[in-house]
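Tokens as discussed.
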């Protein structure tokens, strides 16, 4: 995976607008679960790629450090060889001096080669150092986004559970007649009053019937008295005797 591709992918994921995505989702919870999985996998892939990039950068830095060290070492050898050549030339040993001057030239050539290699890799090291810094920053943003996603998902799940529980409560409440909390009691009271009235009516009817029976007895007594007096009259008696009797 190219480093620029890695950086672009990390930047795209880090800038993702979670709320906008949720607004477009038919099932936000499922989408968040999928986003958490995608982010987790993307972070794992990015971490591996960034680790490789950092590893390559460290190798270049080590090579650069080795070139710098080699250039310094060849420089010291060139100085030593040149000094020895001067010493031999002063002593009259021209051939020995030329031999050490030749060694000094070889050392200087090696020094220049190492310095050139060190300078050549420095721009790459600089650019890769900047890339690694951006990759690390992007990874931090992705991890922060993952935390937001996880928190959002957990919050949504908790709200869904609360809504479900509240729905059950509402259903239970709706099954009760809340328009008149005493409606059932009122209906029961009305039934009792009707029963009481019915019983009272029956009692009143019974009392009326009893009075009528006594009235009929009085009427019967009066008829009996009439018949008795009539019998006295027919037997030759007088009304006075009937009254006295």
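Sequence:
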């Amino acid at each position: 995976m190219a480093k620029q591709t890695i950086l672009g992918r990390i930047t795209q994921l880090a800038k993702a607008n979670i709320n906008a995505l949720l607004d477009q989702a038919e099932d936000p919870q499922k989408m968040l679960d999928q986003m958490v999985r995608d982010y987790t996998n993307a972070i794992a892939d990015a971490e591996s790629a960034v680790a490789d990039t950092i590893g390559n950068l460290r190798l270049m830095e080590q090579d650069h450090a080795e070139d710098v060290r080699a250039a310094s070492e060849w420089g010291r050898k060139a100085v030593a060889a040149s000094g020895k050549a001067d010493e031999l030339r002063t002593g009259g040993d021209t051939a020995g001096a030329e031999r050490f001057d030749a060694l000094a030239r070889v050392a200087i050539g090696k020094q220049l080669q190492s310095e050139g290699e060190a300078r050549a890799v420095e721009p790459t090291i600089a650019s890769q150092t900047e890339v690694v810094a951006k990759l690390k920053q992007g990874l931090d943003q992705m991890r922060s986004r993952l935390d937001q996603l996880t928190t959002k998902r957990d919050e949504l799940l908790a709200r869904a559970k609360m809504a479900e529980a509240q729905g059950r409560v509402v259903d239970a409440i709706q099954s009760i007649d809340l328009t008149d909390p005493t409606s059932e009691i009122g209906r029961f009271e009305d039934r009792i009053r009707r029963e009481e009235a019915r019983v009272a009516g029956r009692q009143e009817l019974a009392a009326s019937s009893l009075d009528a029976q006594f009235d009929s007895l009085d009427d019967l007594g009066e008829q009996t008295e009439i018949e008795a007096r009539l019998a006295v009259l027919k037997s030759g008696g007088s009304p006075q005797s009937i009254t006295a009797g």
